[in-house]
Amino acid sequence: MKIIMLGAPGAGKGTQAKQIAGKYSIPHISTGDIFRANIKNGTELGKKAKEYMDQGLLVPDELTCDLVVDRIGQDDCKNGFVLDGFPRTIPQAEALTNALNELGQKMDYAIDVDVPDENIVKRMSGRRACLECGATYHVVSIPPKKEGICDACGSELVLRDDDKPETVQKRLDVYHEQTQPLIDYYKKAGILKSVDGTQPMEDVFAEIVKILG
Ligand code: ADP
Ligand code: AMP
User: Fold this and answer.
1) Using alpha carbons only, what angle is made at residue 136 by residues 134 and 139, rounded to the nearest 5 degrees?
2) CA-to-CA distance for 5 and 36, rounded, in angstroms?
3) I want to staple 132 with a disulfide (CB 3.0 to 4.6 A). Which of 11, 141, 143, 155 is the partner?
């Protein structure tokens, strides 16, 4: 099963993608997590990506597409994968479609997690992330068992630099301009499904499971 998660930043793509990956035993591939790991490890890619991420801008397609195409070619992706945060532009979607075409494959579902902008700003300011293992929490709706500490690995939780309110608005503008057109792209491809992302996390997941079967 090959799945794309669509939706604004903070809509809950990562939260749902992790659960999908667990239930269907497929890898969760988050380009945001890959860039953050590179930043943490001080790689050249990380240094370049950080310049864009800190401003709420997208990392250029030429730094992003090859990375994902290589990743989905790995052995653990044979039975499918869930993409979270990719594609984010029409050229990225086309690169993905072409790469899969060459292998005689195609995506099965593009799931749009729909949340209005008003809710997004609240979600982002409350998001707390673990930069060690990629787990995500929310101070009100999905708190960790112990404040400020990751349930999964015990590391300290942080407010991501790009979740500060001044950057969130920029990321939303970028989403509407560059990423939202993908909804139409995947509608035309006949694989778009929408879920109401304002519901509690478990209800959103139940809706997704109904779609995936
Ligand atoms: P995305 O990957 O789309 O950027 P996340 O999955 O990281 O978004 O979710 C953004 C924030 O909202 C996180 O703090 C997360 O814990 C919280 N969250 C996710 N899903 C829900 C939900 N259904 N209801 C309330 N808060 C949620
Ligand atoms: P995310 O963790 O998905 O919210 O991504 C955090 C940031 O990483 C984004 O705001 C972008 O700057 C960058 N990023 C992640 N995925 C992509 C992508 N597919 N294309 C371009 N930039 C990306």
Assistant:
1) 150
2) 19
3) 155
The closest residue, in CA terms, to atom 24 on ligand 1 is 200
171 alpha carbon – ligand 2 mean position (Å): 9
* Ligand 2 atom, smallest distance to 88 CA: 19
Decide the pairing of beta strands 127-130 and 157-158.
antiparallel
pTM of the full predicted structure? Answer: 0.96
Ligand 2 atom, smallest distance to 31 CA:
16
Q: Is 89 in the pocket of ligand 1 (CB under 6 A)?
A: no
Give the ligand whose atoms come closest to the C-alpha of residue 14: 1
Per-residue pLDDT tens digits for 27-76: 999 999 999 999 999 999 999 999 999 999 999 999 999 999 999 999 99
For residue 32, give the nearest of 23, 15, 24 by alpha carbon.
15
